[in-house]
Amino acid sequence: MATRARSEERRAEILRAALEVIAERGYRGASLAAVAERVGLTQQGLLHYFPTKEALLVAVLEERDQWDSVPDSQWRLDLLGSLVEYNAMRPGIVQTFSALLGESVAEGHPAREFFTRRYAAVRGNMAQVLRAEYGDRLPGGLTPEQAAPLMVAVMDGLQFQWLLDPDAVDMPEAFRDFLRLLGGT
Length: 185
Known about the structure:
The chain contains nine helices and no strands. With 185 residues, the chain is mainly α. The chain is elongated, with a radius of gyration of 19 Å.
């Protein structure tokens, strides 16, 4: 059992190092050798935990999502505002996620499938949140399913603007403004 715990601990250490290397160099510039060196392994030793660079990337993205996870039935609009505030406190993570998202739109990118699945799930979660808050129609007349992609676009778009000019864009305040607009108040 101690061996398994050590293996999981080592895996988590590799994921943190990979996130750092990707944040510094981007996915294309990040190498397995750089990640291995950061955790004191050979590249071959790293491949024991993650057989390919693509497998490591997907594991990093899945790990990042676990940090933000809330059971689907417990998402609420006020929690979304808290998530935006939380993201404003960790620019390195947001930058890495945003860079990988941008890269993933290229055909054949190893994270494309991950982000495609993730966005389908996130849109579904946002529709549930909006339905719980407003019922079948929002004050402006949209259905929760129509408004959900807009909510996700605002959240992600604010992240990009904030990353580029954090002094000009108060991400949490802008998201609160959007929620007021969405609610018709």
